[in-house]
Fold this sequence. Notes:
44% of the residues lie in helices and 13% in strands. By secondary structure, the chain is α/β, with parallel strands linked by helices. The structure holds 6-hydroxymethylpterin-diphosphate. 6-hydroxymethylpterin-diphosphate is lined by residues 6, 8, 44, 47-49, 80, 99, 101, 122, 124, 170, 172-173, 200, 202, 204, 241.
Amino acid sequence: MKVMGIVNVTPDSFSDGGLFFDHEKAIERGLQLVSEGADVLDIGGESTRPGADAGPLEEELRRVIPVVEGLAGAAPVSIDTTKAEVARQAIEAGAKIVNDVTALRGDPEMVGVVAETGVELVLMHMLGTPRTMQDDPRYDDVVAEVAEFLAVQAGVAEAAGVERDKIWIDPGIGFGKTVEHNLLLLRSTSRFVEMKLPVLVGASRKRFIGELGGGAPEGRRLGGTIAACLAARERGAAMVRVHDVAPVVQAILVASAIEEVGE
Ligand code: HH2
């Protein structure tokens, strides 16, 4: 299983300096994650936290493009954006994957950019928008509805010319989901794997871990993050998106070694 390391270029992650400093810090962080074993770097300049609004285009471009340029030589880069123009410029700067948390619903031009450039595409499920998604999310059958949504959006991508072998699917842990929804989705990772598209799971430091773990704050959710990653791995996930690359890589190594010993 691959590990995608998260490189945030948002003011809440690097609040202690100007823009130039932000870029340097983010590039340093990315290189550190590669040295820890990240297979892919996911660079994002738009907050998708519950309650967040999408920021302006120019600001997002200023944040992420120099970081993509700085890291594209070190590892395959994924651009975490909902905006086609950001995706386009990031691809020009060397990005190989577009990670769109709206699964093509945020910008009508997105699918064209991905199809024309031939890069990979991550389709993630989200109920509503970051601003509203945690307002009482409800499903009749969360696993079936998320799977159906991802199948439809994969069809949209293919119809627009994105090759099927370039498409990833992601159940969108924490995006319009209760704790129970998140647990059901993680337990049902194999249901998504059965769709014959590689599955990406992003549970790193998410709120449900804190809610299960007696209110642990974001910086103290590594144990839960590792548990979620290993659960997804056991059920066939192809990649996990995490902040703490070294401990997750180590956990995967040990889990694989236990399975493979004596074979
Ligand atoms: N989660 C976040 C952002 N992008 N992309 C994918 N494919 N899957 C995810 O689960 C996912 C994602 C969460 O974003 P945020 O809450 O802003 O925090 P961070 O980027 O630090 O994880």
